[in-house]
Amino acid sequence: MSEQPDDIVLEILKSLQHELSLVRRDQASQALRLLAMEDHQRGLLTSLHGVMTSILGVETDISAMKDRIDRIERRIGLMDTEH
Questions:
Q1: Cβ neighbours of 70 (radius 10 Å)
Q2: pTM for the full model?
């Protein structure tokens, strides 16, 4: 009769060990997914930075063109400065 409780305890411990193994595997899988998402986020931020840099460059070019047009208009006597 004393062997039966030992067998039950052993079976419970084996079951717990198996469940713990599944939890660890799931945790490792989620850690990999999180790393992948973080890498993706870094890529998006890098792309966004590139877009913002391009926009700033275009704004600078537009500003320089506006200044040039203003100078040309002044030279040829056009005083329409409503832009």
A1: 13
A2: 0.58
